[in-house]
Amino acid sequence: MTTFEFNNSLIGMKPNLQRFAMSLTSDRDDALDLVQDTYLKAITYKDKFADFTNLKAWVFTIMKNTFINNYRRGVKENTIIDGTKDLYYINQPQDKGFISPESSYAENEIEKAIDSLEDEFRVPFRMHIEGYKYKEIAEELGLKIGTVKSRIFFTRQKLMLMLKDYVR
Description:
Layout: H1 3-12, H2 14-25, H3 28-44, H4 55-77, H5 101-115, H6 119-129, H7 134-141, H8 145-162
Helix pairs in contact: 2-3, 2-4, 3-4, 6-8, 7-8
């Protein structure tokens, strides 16, 4: 395949590449950047493309891998590494700032609703929202893990009915 044919084929794929990029990023600007990065890599590594194979699949694979690599790079950049001896920064309480009266009222209503439940539903649910894992709750209460999961599920359902005014 000549360079001219290769470039024309790439240009012809632009609408499909843009749609695929939008499906990956869900943001127009990020999608356009991804298409541009894909074009750059495809042209840079043209010599890696084997003639008489599927150019479209090759270019879409470049786009998918570029997206994945950019995503992973972004996750690493946003990871906080606390090098202090006692993990000082990680163990600092996070200031939640100003609590609005509406949210305070809603929290009180939710607490009342949870407290009004029968013990068999309230206790596992409270343990779950406090951070216990299903297995730990099951061991603590002497229940099967499936029973714990179903009670937490049914508790959520009951609370959604009781607090339907707060559902968005």
